[in-house]
């Protein structure tokens, strides 16, 4: 397994915080901070999807570039880890495969964090029933989404976790860049500088 996992405590929970991160923004960091505060895990692992299963056909910034931005975003915070696991594996990114890789690396306590807006998709995930037998599923609150309306198949299978509501999304950031509107305080400074220097989202 990669060197970035070498210093993590295998006896404590590791949280898989997956996403496209196109780009990573302060909302991601604030939510991850809340999750860390509540669980005190070994680390929050920002797992960058190579090709998200539910977003196939959509255009995304190349995975290596998104991973680089996540590394910039979490640099200096030892609680957060930028994981190249799915990018290195390539192809469509399935959470069950990522969890299997972490289990093989010696992690026995794994939690998967999913936003309330994406909870409805969980029963469509690859081998989702097996996955939920192996991990703690954390459903993160989000304004406008009611966790009580989760699919019946998920009843009793997830843990609601209240996080700070942050009205920032990657879609919003991309739109503001494209329209030439200010976005400096929506993303970490290093990500802001990278977006400008690379002329991303123009």
The name of the CATH superfamily reads HUPs
The topology string of helices and strands comes to: EHEHEHHEHEEHH
Number of strands: 6
Secondary-structure class: alpha/beta
Name of the CATH first level: Alpha Beta
Quaternary status = single chain
Backbone CA Rg:
16 Å
Separate helix tally = 7
CA-CA gap between termini: 36 Å
- Sequence of strands across the biggest β-sheet: 3-2-1-4-5-6
Task: Please bin the fraction of helical residues.
Answer: 25-40%
Low-pLDDT segments: none
CATH topology title: Rossmann fold
What percentage of amino acids are in beta strands?
A: 5-15%
Mean pLDDT rating: 94
Concise structural overview:
This protein is α/β, with parallel strands linked by helices.
